[in-house]
Amino acid sequence: MTTITPLALPEILLITPKRHGDARGWFTETWSRRAFQAAGLDHDFVQDNQAFSAKAGTVRGLHFQQAPHPQAKLVRVLSGAIHDVAVDVRAGSATFGQWVGARLTAEGGEQLLIPRGFAHGYCTLTDDCMLAYKVDGDYAPGTEGGVAWDDPDLAIAWGVDPDQAITSDKDKVLPRLKDMPQARF
Asked: Known catalytic residue: 83?
């Protein structure tokens, strides 16, 4: 049985599939339409993605896609560990601008379900970190949006010295939340 735990922002769910093990190793069901539907989660995932980061302290995000192609994500770690973060960017939401984070590890098998309307990012806590994630919307570059990972108003505790973080040129120029155009979901 999979354990589903709402975090401080209750739309963000920490999902921990049960592992069945013996002397040979273990088996787990990482996603099941039936199990998700039984829990009231009805995502039609259309694409699987994989990402690799060579160095600990790599920060990717905070990214989202907006209408007409928003995406929910189901994120898990295949090797290493990350600090995974979701920020509410839904205009008018009672929790707009609030964030929640969770540690995801290959060893523990935890996953984070990030619904549409939330920016997503993560910081690698180990070298040679690999992620896999499902999305419920096709990639549409014209609908991409983002928020500066180091926005001082968000004050996200990434677990890395900001001066030592490894980021992309794209992420270095993302706006602060207060300067971001209103996103549509």
From this structure: no
Q: For the full predicted model, state whether its pTM sits above 0.90.
A: yes
List 43, 63, 83, 120, catalytic entry: 63
Contact 185, 117 (CB under 8 A): yes
Which of 43, 83, 122, 133 is labelled catalytic?
133
| 85, 62 Cβ separation under 8 angstroms | yes
Q: What does the pLDDT look like over 50-74, one tens digit per residue?
A: 999 999 999 999 999 999 999 999 9
Residue type (1 letter), 39: A
Strands 13-16 and 19-22: unpaired
139 is catalytic: no
Which phi and psi (to 5°) does residue 38 adopt? -60, -25
**Distance (Å, rounded) from C-alpha 69 to C-alpha 115?**
13
